[in-house]
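Might you be able to check the backbone structure tokens below? Thank you kindly.
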Amino acid sequence: MNYLAETLNELTKEKRKGYGEYPKCPECGYAMVWTFSFRYKEWACLPCYVTAPMFHGFDKVWRNIKYMDAKKRLWQRDLSVIARTEGGATCAVCNDKTCKWCKDADNKNYKFTYWKTRIN
């Protein structure tokens, strides 16, 4: 029965307007978010602390693109701090570290909302 469902899923792929395939987090099973916050890891699931490279080999799940964009906006603050502190990103907003994103990244006591742990 599972094979039949997967086959039908493949046949109707083209008809899914507004939906996309995303890697399935091996820990929680939810779709991972595309981000450049981590070095050499383009996919992330912040609550589970799971990251994956672009070509990952994880199972994929169909999700609404608008929902995934909203999820990424929800995680934006944490992803910004991770990118500036761990990912080697530079700010595209300011040059003198005065924007709120840079201030969060410079704050050593910053408390992550979604990311459970930090890379050592």
